[in-house]
Specification:
Blueprint (H helix, E strand, L loop, with lengths): L1 H12 L2 H8 L3 H15 L4 E4 L2 E4 L1 H20 L3 H4 L3 E6 L1 H8 L3 H7 L4 E6 L13 E6 L6 E15 L1 H7 L14 E2 L5 H7 L11 E2 L2 H9 L5 E4 H10 L3 E2 L3 E14 L6 H14 L9 E3 L6 E3 L3 E2 H4 L1
Parallel strand pairs: 3-4, 3-5, 7-8, 11-14
Antiparallel strand pairs: 1-2, 5-11, 6-9, 6-10, 6-11, 12-13
Helix pairs in contact: 1-2, 1-3, 1-4, 2-3, 6-11
Length: 313
């Protein structure tokens, strides 16, 4: 069993050292187990790429089978910590952890002072099915194979930038984006919002492309351009003033946040408590500061109530 655990942890972390820390064994023990498995299977499972140990194509294929087998064993022989409900392991996307969860997790831990809580961050959508994960938070439509999902909250999209960037480019109406750099997210296109605003602007095709929402917002906070942001990830930045929301238009998103766990299993008591806490925290009323719009009749600045794109369309 330890051989399979060593292989799964090393593949997930891309590191023998981090796998050793997780399993509370030495680096040499992990290396020995991997070498033993390679000799049995007559195949190479890892190759060094820079400072990481990357799984080979054969290892990726084997990994899915190993995770399924380990999950079956976990259900049949649950560990003592799980039975006692004293440990909770959750899987979340890195951006969700850094832009929302970590700043609020104290509220849940204060209610459970004896709980050991492990937060694993990964961009791999399938990682919530890995052995040892009690519950995950994922962004999407809610339909994942071999998984049960419970909706937590919806999302809205709107442009944001640093206060100094707004002042420098005199951003007062959507048409002003013509003279701005639109920060590009690999999975979050600008096109739907641009079309809803009635602008003739097209999706940006040049410049930096980022695959993580947190990096896009970091770039916006650094004054590098305008980001099309999810409302959840901008809550703190809008409140503390490192970002400002532009314009009135916001787009409802087809995707949302879901609590996810393996299909056919029942959440442990503490995992279910975390699910309930998450839903309450995510759905708590949020005061979103309306964008400042120039009043053409005077030098005064007025605030106008926000409206959503679905009202306009």
């Amino acid at each position: 069993m330890l051989t399979l655990q060593a292989f799964e942890a090393a593949a997930r972390h891309g590191s023998y050292s981090r796998a050793a820390v997780e399993l509370n064994v030495t680096h040499g023990a992990i290396s020995h187990r991997i070498r033993e498995l390679e000799e049995r299977l007559h195949m190479r499972l890892f190759q060094r790429v820079g400072h990481n140990m990357e799984p080979t194509r054969e290892a990726v294929t084997l990994l899915a089978q190993v995770r399924q087998a380990m999950a079956t064993l976990q259900l049949t022989f649950p560990d003592k910590a799980r039975r006692q409900d004293t440990k909770l392991v959750i899987s979340v996307h890195p951006a969700f952890a850094t832009r929302w969860l970590i700043r609020r997790i104290d509220g849940f831990l204060a209610e459970h002072p004896k709980l050991v809580m492990e937060v694993r961050t990964t961009a791999d959508l399938g990682d919530f099915l890995a052995p040892g994960i009690d519950i995950a938070v994922r962004y999407g439509t809610g339909a994942w194979p071999n998984a049960t999902s419970d909706p937590l909250c919806d999302e809205r999209l709107f442009p944001v930038c640093a206060p100094q960037y707004r002042a420098q480019h005199r951003l007062r109406r959507p048409a002003d984006l013509n003279r701005c750099r639109l920060l590009r997210h690999l999975w979050q296109p600008w096109s739907p919002w641009l079309q809803a605003s009635g602008l003739a602007l097209r999706e940006p095709t040049v410049g930096l492309v980022l695959s993580d929402s947190s990096m896009v917002l970091e770039a916006a906070e650094a004054g590098q351009g305008v980001a099309l942001a999810r409302s959840l990830f901008t809550r703190d930045a809008l409140e503390n003033g490192t970002l400002v929301r532009l314009f009135e238009l916001q787009m409802p998103e087809k995707n949302g946040y879901f609590a996810v766990w393996r299909a056919g299993t029942t959440l442990s008591g503490v995992a279910d408590l975390f699910r309930v806490w998450l839903k309450q925290a995510l759905q708590a009323p949020v005061v979103v500061v309306a964008p400042v719009v120039a009043d053409s009749s005077s030098s005064r600045r007025v605030r106008r109530p926000a409206r959503t794109a679905d009202r306009k369309l």
